[in-house]
Amino acid sequence: MKLKLKGYKSEQPIHPIWRDGLEVMKQLFANPIYVKHMCYDTHHIYQGQEHQIGEFWTSDDAWEIQDQLLEGATVVPIIAASDKTPVTRHTGGLEMHPSFLTIRNIQANVHMKAMSHVWRCTAFMPILTFIVNSDFQTLLWVHLWHKCMDLVCCVGEYMVDPLAKICCCFTPLISHIAVLPEQLMITCIMKNLSPVTTATHKEFGDETPHPPRNESDTYALIQQLCNRSKKLHLSGVHLPYWRNWRCSNPTRFLTPEILHTLHKFFFNHILKWIKQIMGHELDVWFKSHHKHTGVHHFSGGVSHHRDIQRTIVLTLWGITSPGFIRVVQAMIDFIYLAQNPLHTESSIASMTQALQDFHDNKQAILDAEACQGKSGAKDDFFIPKLELMQNFTHAISHVDSLMQWTADISEHLLITHCKHPFEHTSHQRDFDPLMNAVIMEDEEIASMETDPTFAWVSNANPAAQLCLQVLCPVRNHFLKGSCQATFQ
Fold it and tell me: β-strand 50-52 against 45-47: which pairing, if any?
């Protein structure tokens, strides 16, 4: 199969590398290795009088989805992750854009470990150049990305669970882990807008949350697209991959991401504001810290290490104004509270208060002229990540603890499935065949011969081996001639 965008030609043929997401889900759902780490039912957990929020199955969304299904139906929540990453160093400019899937029935402490093999690479999106004006390159590529995701996306049907029982399964998309540019692409909206709320660029610094950007509202605007896309704040994509996915709302499944939203906000903004005030003295202070077990020692001065957040407030004491210290302390409190693996109404209220304290005292940053732009001191906070923080407490009540949706695992998968395999190629000529080989090798690991699932079953109960799901072969849509026989 060869993909085409009607009316547009590309310099290279469009050959997606992908496999059926539904087959991937079936194999994960039936895998007996995870039988002691699976959950299927919604439930409530209480800490005293407070509702405790930890796993997805204790969230509001889990109960809402379950209430919409027929009696006896099983929810198999889908978690997706995707990101574009460069695979060449310094030169070449070659990039890859893989996508990964797993299921949320497997407990968070298992699916958050890269070595547990819970995540499956389902596609490598083609990155190519279209023969059009440069203004339309990005729009066409986003169209192509959504078209490729349509191939991978899975809908519910009957599946076999780890105990060989047949279940009527429903597969809502509950989380798509992505960085901000990718989130804008997923929601089909323009830059300088929030992917999860209706906030625009000049409203990013507002202390009050804005209304959510619901799936029904976005798709209704897409229907009015035609020649008015920019006025409607849309990117021009008219067939988003989530359009027919029941109970899949971008404002819900674009879960807040701690690594790129919080930690990078600290390093890209908070730390820069501090450096603007303290200058070289900041390095001197951190170099002079006594070494202590369990705390990173900055012998070379300040670096982008998360441990700097643990001592930065004390370092500011007596050097900056009390208001500036309160701003930094409020953001540090918010960052640490957001990483809590378990939440209650009290912890969520503390997060809300910490963010409110930041907004109440942020004028101290402007007074100190710490926020600098290209033309000097700035007098605004038009920062997308700051607006995304308004959605954190709202998301916790809907999808539970945010640590389970961190991009740390997807960043690791980019290394193992893109950068490391690329190092074993000629860096151009045999790149595509190798990527196909990577997916097929992943298939072999999950196959009957090498997967510990089937090795365990074949020894314990050979007859039950026939009840288990095996993945279908990867779709190979680009190999021709002599290469084809090698990789089929």
Answer: antiparallel
Tell me, what's the pLDDT at 457? 58
Report the candidate in 176, 131, 161, 106 with the shortest Cα–Cα distance to residue 5. Answer: 131
- The residue-averaged pLDDT of 315-319 equals 84
State the burial class of residue 190 (Cβ atoms within 10 Å of its Cβ: 0-12, 13-18, 19+). middle
CB distance 196 to 213 below 8 Å: yes
Average pLDDT over every residue of 152-157: 76
The pairing of strands 74-75 and 166-170 is: parallel
Q: Which residue in this structure is represented by tokens 């939203």?
A: 261
Question: Per-residue b/e over 326-355, b at no fewer than 16 CB within 10 Å?
Answer: bbbbbbbbbbebbebeebbeebbebbbebb
The answer to whether residues 117 and 34 touch, using CB atoms and an 8 Å cutoff, is no
DSSP 3-state of 73 = coil
d(CA 86, CA 89): 8
Q: How distant is the alpha carbon of residue 321 from its chain centre? A: 37
In the chain, DSSP finds a helix count (H) and a strand count (E) of 21, 14
Q: What is the pLDDT of residues 159-182, one digit of tens each?
A: 988 888 899 999 999 999 999 989
- The dihedral sign for the CA sequence 156, 158, 162, 165: positive
